[in-house]
Amino acid sequence: MDMQWKGDKVTNFGARVRGGQKYEPIAIVNHIMAGTMAGTLSWFQNKASQASSHFGVGKDGTIHQYVRIENAAWTQGLTADAIPAAPAAVIRQMGVNPNLYCISIEHEGYDGELTEAQFWSSCWLHKYIQHEVERIWGRHIQLSPQFVIGHFQIDPKRKPFCPGPKFPWSRLYSELAKAEGTTLDAWEEYVEYRAGSGAAYAHAYAACERIRDLGSKLTNKQWAAEARRKIMLLEPIMAETDYPDSQVTAEGIVERALDLYEKMTGNGQWAAEALRKLLIFYNRMKQTGLL
């Protein structure tokens, strides 16, 4: 993965020690930058900000590390009187500043909606953190909702929306459940496939074969009405695929999808663009239950 060390000029962090007691990481906290990677780095390098996080994940999938996980980044600190009101049970149970025992991940953006590259880099990063904590401290951070949380679950008053209303919690937990039972190397290979072109072509093929199947049923007396209804669920996205006609029909949708498939598999100048448009079909079909 493309992970870059950016901590040379970051001094906003401390030791994982309080009152002579040492703490180890037991939870991962997700955040939203409410800005860009460049702006976040500049903010963390500013001593006056008194702020930092361990990692940042960019829209392009790049990962920055600002603070070593052996140290406590200053990103989700909480006063003692606010800890009992934290929605996350692990925060209430620990009863001390969460910076002492958490590892933080920032995500570039504003509302929590992640790009595909960003999502898969974040998935890999969660597993990497688990691996490193186990290597350094011999402690296993379970990649579950109890120990992978959002800033809003720590500080709902000051950060009620962090990491954003569109953050893909269900999808993240679903993938992390798979990561829990595998090694870092095996997980990295899986993430590389899902984030790479192989999965994209597989998705495009699946979408086309389903549309082809539904199209063949348009002349079947038993299935024609249902096939037409299901195909028309794709109508809202046809403008995004440069559908050539002003009036969308079920037959037209099938024709457009199969035309794009021919362009994608032809490896001509339009192959990459055809793949991109077929993935629009795929995403809509997943949303509507057609796949």
Description:
42% of the residues lie in helices and 12% in strands. It has two domains: 3-195, 3-Layer(aba) Sandwich (Lysozyme-like); 198-288, no CATH class. α3 (116-137) packs antiparallel against α5 (184-195) and α8 (250-265) crosses α9 (271-288). β3 and β4 form a beta hairpin. It has nine helices and ten strands.
CATH superfamily of the largest domain: Peptidoglycan recognition protein-like
> So how many helices?
9
Mean pLDDT value: 94
Output the helix-strand order.
EEEEEHEEEHEHEHHHHHH
| Low-confidence segments | none
The CATH architecture name of the largest domain reads 3-Layer(aba) Sandwich
What is the SS-derived class? Answer: alpha/beta
CATH class of the largest domain: Alpha Beta
Biggest sheet: strands, sense, closure?
Answer: 6 strands, mixed
| Widest β-sheet, arrangement of strands | 1-7-6-9-5-10
Please name the defining characteristics of this protein.
42% helix; 10 strands; alpha/beta; Lysozyme-like; six-stranded mixed beta sheet; 2 domains; 291 residues; two-stranded antiparallel sheet
Short characterization:
The chain is of the alpha/beta class and 291 residues long. It is elongated and about 75 Å long. 42% of the residues lie in helices and 12% in strands.
Topology:
Layout: E1 3-5, E2 13-15, E3 17-18, E4 21-22, E5 27-32, H1 37-45, E6 55-57, E7 63-65, E8 71-73, H2 89-94, E9 102-107, H3 116-137, E10 148-150, H4 169-180, H5 184-195, H6 197-216, H7 224-231, H8 250-265, H9 271-288
Parallel strand pairs: 1-7, 5-9, 5-10, 6-9
Antiparallel strand pairs: 2-8, 3-4, 6-7
